[in-house]
Amino acid sequence: MNYKSIAKKIIDLRNKDLTLRNDLIQKGLMDEGYHEEMEEMHNLNAEELKDIIDQIGYPDINKVGKEASEAAWLVIQHAIGLPDFMKMCQELLKKAVAEKKADPLHLAYLSDRIAVLEGKNQIFGTQFDWDDTGTMNPNAFDDLKKVNQRRNSIGLNTLQEQTDVIRHRVQTENQTPPRDLLKRKQQMDEWRKKVGWME
């Protein structure tokens, strides 16, 4: 198995994703919901990564190296239109983390993203969105003290510190809240039902 060429392919998927994201941000097209072009790319990237996983198993650090393993996680993290794929990867990632072959931070972020998409509380406070006042804040979580303890246990900063980081990034990228927050929330809920995150 040529892991080197597989690693390159995974990194190429990540690069395509980030290039399109930056392009859409520059054009001001990322603020009004899940852009069709982005969704299409996320799904195509996930299909290509699934083929790789079918061949080699989870692309952990031992197989493809740190950069490609991180790139694989990003592709999985962005495959939000494919609940079964994300949940399958979560199970594979749990095993890889337990075997010290993958980054526990990746599992924290993926688990939180799945929880948020399912309408549940996140565990580590890694996922953020615009709130009802148009402020960037963490998605719902259970208890701030517990969240900060969990974050600390895997080497993350406090939730308040991360909130400051995220708000600064949003400002730097000139991102703005959607013009109609309620409409965007309704559209997102409809989309989550359509792709299978919610009943």
SSE layout and pairings?
Elements: H1 3-26, H2 36-56, H3 61-77, H4 83-98, H5 104-117, E1 128-130, E2 136-138, H6 144-153, H7 159-172, H8 181-195
Antiparallel strand pairs: 1-2
Helix pairs in contact: 1-2, 1-3, 2-3, 3-5, 4-5
Explained architecture:
Helix content is 66%, strand content 3%. The longest helix is centred in the first third of the chain and has 24 residues, at 3-26. Helix 1 (3-26) runs parallel beside helix 3 (61-77) and helix 4 (83-98) runs antiparallel to helix 5. It has 2 domains: 1-102; 122-199, no CATH class. It has a two-stranded antiparallel ribbon. It is mainly α and 199 residues long. The mean pLDDT is 94. It has helices at residues 3-26, 36-56, 61-77, 83-98, 104-117, 144-153, 159-172, 181-195, and strands at residues 128-130, 136-138. Strand 1 (128-130) and strand 2 (136-138) form a beta hairpin.
| Helix-and-strand structural type | mainly alpha
Count of DSSP-assigned helices: 8
Largest sheet report: 2 strands, antiparallel
Helix content: 55-70%
Instruction: Compute the number of strand runs.
Output: 2
Query: How far is the first residue's CA from the last residue's CA?
Result: 41 Å
Q: Would you identify the regions where 5 or more consecutive residues have pLDDT less than 50?
A: none
